[in-house]
Amino acid sequence: MLYADASATTPVRREVLEAMWPYLTGEFGNPSSTHDLGHRAASALASARADVAAAFGARPGEVVFTSGGTEADNLAVKGLALATPRGRHVVTSAIEHEAVGQSVDALARLHGFTVTVLTPQPDGVVTPEALRAALRPDTTLVTIHHANNEVGTVQDVAALAAVAHEAGAPFHTDAVQSAGWLDVSLAGLGVDALSVSGHKIGAPKGVGALLVRAGLPLEPVLHGGGQERGRRSGTENVAFAVGLAAAARALPALRARAGEVAASRDALIDGVLARVPGALLTGPDPRPTAPAAPGTAKAAAPGTAQEPGTARRLPGHASFCFPGTSGEAVLLELERAGVTTSSGSACAAGRDEPSHVLLALGLAPEVAQTSVRLTVDAPFDADAVVAAVVAATTAVGRLGS
């Protein structure tokens, strides 16, 4: 079996399990307790916080442990917007994860915020110029993701954050998809808040973190005992925080594979576009030498509106539409052929409506419903690439006949 759904989740790394095990068994203390068992738990939590901070360019006091990326996004969007007294206007994009999109909707519905939603370019890029035009004196927050989970586009977050700061607005980015591939740093990107999720980088499901710049006001979403310096109440999950820290320490090794994985991805894109009639690549074409269309010097790759290689894409990410087919039926055929993947966001799986991301990129609904996403966290060998291409070709051929 070829597992090609790494954007949905990744397996827990062995070193992560080994680091967690003591705190799932004998070292079970509550870090708020004053006895020795509690002190040891508190010490482990502090060490985990320091390691996560170091991995993501922050200070330990800027790390808030959460139950995952969704909670981190909710805390960032609601917490920053509600704590900022300057106004009630939020800027976001039309292709955010639902954790951000629904949080922004809640601000509008429950708290009277106005929202400006930026339409990206057809390759998924949100431009600094578009953001600059949307900012207002009462803008309380800008929230734009670092990398898109459905089409793999990597935003120039540093440039976007700089534009937001020119207008005095704090900037949050969802880095759930990019953390395992790119140098994701609170300080390096120049953002005010950054969300990460454990299960996308080899830690278990149920843990994540929000990194938020020191001194920035943050209204808590959960109220209770005042843990996490009053920003996220609830007894801390020491074992899972330790697991997230272990995964964070392993990030340099994961990121070192990016070039090799990207080469495999490019071979996959080449094969699918060459062998599947009508296949469309969604999102940016990362290949520096993609074939030009007849009569052009350097044409956009099929299904995109930008020159190949001019925008970054996550190394392990390829996504396609196969017009004239059913995306769900293609997935079933792929699974029969030994390729496990998905149509897009796993968090939206099972819904009948087409992807809001693909619609925002300009695809027709009937085309958007034919999407298939192939994402990996390790290099393909040549046989695996060929197998994936043949499986997709066979599936589309059967369904189209």
Question: What does this molecule look like?
Answer:
The chain has 401 residues and is α/β, with parallel strands linked by helices. The chain folds into two domains: 237 residues, 3-Layer(aba) Sandwich (Aspartate Aminotransferase, domain 2), CATH 3.40.640.10; 117 residues, Aspartate Aminotransferase, domain 1, CATH 3.90.1150.10. The chain is built from 14 helices and twelve strands. The strands form three sheets. Strands 2-8-7-6-5-3-4 form a seven-stranded mixed β-sheet, sandwiched between helices. Helix 1 runs antiparallel to helix 8 and helix 11 crosses helix 14. The chain is globular and about 70 Å long. About 5% of the residues have low confidence. It comes from Xylanimonas ulmi. It is an enzyme of class 2 (transferase). This is cysteine desulfurase.
Question: Helices and strands in order, then pairings?
Answer:
Blueprint: E1 2-3, H1 14-24, H2 36-55, E2 63-66, H3 69-83, E3 89-93, H4 98-111, E4 114-118, H5 128-134, E5 139-143, H6 157-166, E6 171-174, H7 186-189, E7 193-197, E8 208-212, H8 238-249, H9 251-255, H10 258-275, E9 280-281, E10 317-321, H11 327-336, E11 339-340, H12 356-360, H13 365-368, E12 371-375, H14 382-400
Parallel strand pairs: 1-11, 3-4, 3-5, 5-6, 6-7
Antiparallel strand pairs: 2-8, 7-8, 9-10, 10-12
Helix pairs in contact: 1-8, 2-8, 3-4, 10-14, 11-14
- Helices, by number, come to 14
**Rg to the nearest angstrom?**
21 Å
Q: What order do the helices and strands follow? A: EHHEHEHEHEHEHEEHHHEEHEHHEH
Number of domains: 2
CATH fold naming of the largest domain? Aspartate Aminotransferase, domain 2
- Strands ordered across the widest β-sheet: 2-8-7-6-5-3-4
Give the low-confidence spans.
292-310
Class of the largest domain in CATH? Alpha Beta
Query: What's the architecture of the largest domain in CATH terms?
Result: 3-Layer(aba) Sandwich
Basic shape: globular
Catalytic activity: (sulfur carrier)-H + L-cysteine = (sulfur carrier)-SH + L-alanine
Biased composition (Low complexity): 292-305
Pfam families: Aminotran_5
Keywords: Iron, Iron-sulfur, Metal-binding, Pyridoxal phosphate, Transferase
